Amino acid sequence: MWYEEAANFKSAEDFDQTNPTFVRQKHPLAKDVKIFYSYNPPKNPYDWINEWIDEIEGDNNKRVENGQEPRYLIDSSTYLDDTLGINSEQTLADIERFKQNDYDYYRWLYLGEVVGLGTNIYNMNLFNQIEDIPDDDYILGMYISADTGHEISATACSCYALTRKKRIVLLDTYYYSPAGKANKKSPKELSDNLHHFIQRMRDKYGNKIIKMTMDSAEGALRNQYYADYGTAWHPVNKLKKVDMIDRVQNLLAQGRFFYLPTENNLKYFISEHQKYQWDGDTLENDDPKVVKEDDHTCDNFQYVCLDNERDFGLRW
């Protein structure tokens, strides 16, 4: 019996409930049922499967101390153990790129080390500033992503370009905060503002919009925009925060993210990512939270990576 991608289960209780179905009946040709679990360790040492493995190792150690055989075989392997030449030169080159760009991410993704989360979420050295789309490259299409708010939360809408050389380039950002304003913008006003921003991006870069992504919890503005302009935003299917952030970190570690130094990109997008942090009080559990303050461009970056991970080369 084999659990592939075991870390994707919710907890070890899933195994406890499933295993008896397959092992309860004695088979005439087998002494017992061998159960295998394979997975990639999550970064967070407090993720349930990392703690579960620690418990299993503890059980093995106690049995050895008591002169008993260990109950479990725990093994690990990485691409470095490939003696058959299965990994292609292209794969090895990609791995080396991760290693050079973000060594901790490489340790986790390719060496299977539980590297921890830290407090600061992003390595800002991986946010590459460029003045314009390079002459040896061109835009294939543009992607719009918005994290929206009305009464107390800001609206941040960014335009990202995918280029022929697989660069992801942040072109510009629209940002509106209702904080401190007596008369806050209505959904109709925000709809018009977003449309004008998107049209400005179309006019400036002359490329089609591949997809427009918005927070799935935001229904009013999506409906308003459709009523005004006949265009439907795609509601992103959000995951746990740590999993959405992982998509962004994957892109950054590949060295493929770039941004233009527009006023709003610098004032909001870069500034918010520099301050983006885990909530230290939540790190010691399997669903850590971020500090929910000035994180609106951070959210829209996560949305665009999650909603377009195949286009962006983050999923195969």
Automatic annotation (TrEMBL):
Residue intervals of the Phage terminase large subunit C-terminal domain: 147-304
Residues covered by the Phage terminase large subunit N-terminal domain: 1-113
Pfam family name, one: Terminase_3C
NCBIfam families listed in its UniProt record: phage_term_2
Name under which the protein is recorded: Uncharacterized protein
Organism: Pediococcus pentosaceus
